[in-house]
Structures are given as C-alpha cells and as structure tokens.
Write a structure and sequence with these properties.
By secondary structure, the protein is mostly helical. It contains five helices and no strands. It is elongated. About 20% of the residues are buried.
Length: about 120
C-alpha cells in the first residue's frame, strides 16, 4: 500500500522536473523549480493522507489503530524525507546525464514533451 502511494508522489515531481528541464536546459534549475512547483502539493497531499490514516486510530479494535498509525508515519516520512529531500539529489548530481537517453532507446521511444509551450 505504501509503495502505491509512493509511486504517485514520485511521478508528479519527476514529470515536473522534466518540464522544467525542457524549458530551461539547466538541471540545477530544473530541480529547484520542481521543488518550488510541486513541494507544497506533495506535502499537502501527504498531510491529507496522514490525517485520514490517523483517524483509524480512533477506531475500536487494535489492528486498525496500529495500521493507521504505521501508515501515517510511513507516508509522512516518505513525503518529507524521500520525495522532498532525497528524490531531487540524484538528478542534480548527475547533471545533464540524468536527462540523456541512449540513441538506440531514443529511436524506439515516442517523443513526448512535458512542457506547456
């Protein structure tokens, strides 16, 4: 369940990073723009999920209480630590190599642009 939630919170910032990179061509600016553009949305969505999961703690039986608290903590750590701190680091360190597609793969894949130009 956490994996499914985490994938939603990964696709959004990476698509935003690709959009910023296509517009600017600068990997550092792309990651900074991504955090500025999507950071609040990711953290707000995580806050809503944490609130919903913590309502399970108000239920009667012990297993839903445990599940709600564990899922709430997991989502909060995933959004704050992984998605907003660790996810931007590898593309920024790799620079333009993070956005390079090998020639053979580039011929096979369709051209998709994320920019809104």
């Amino acid at each position: 369940m956490i994996f499914a939630i985490a994938m939603d919170c990964t696709v959004f910032p990476l698509a935003s990073a690709e959009e910023h990179y296509e517009r600017t061509g600068d990997p550092r600016e792309a990651m900074a723009g991504t955090l500025a553009h999507s950071g609040r949305v990711i953290f707000a969505a995580a806050g809503v999920m944490v609130a919903v999961f913590y309502t399970f703690a108000l239920s009667g039986p012990l297993p839903p209480k445990e599940m709600g608290i564990v899922l709430g903590v997991a989502v909060l750590l995933d959004a704050a630590l992984v998605r907003l701190v660790l996810l931007p680091v590898p593309p920024r360190l790799a620079g333009t190599a993070a956005w390079h597609t090998p020639a053979r793969l580039d011929r096979l894949l369709p051209r998709i642009s994320f920019s809104h130009d």
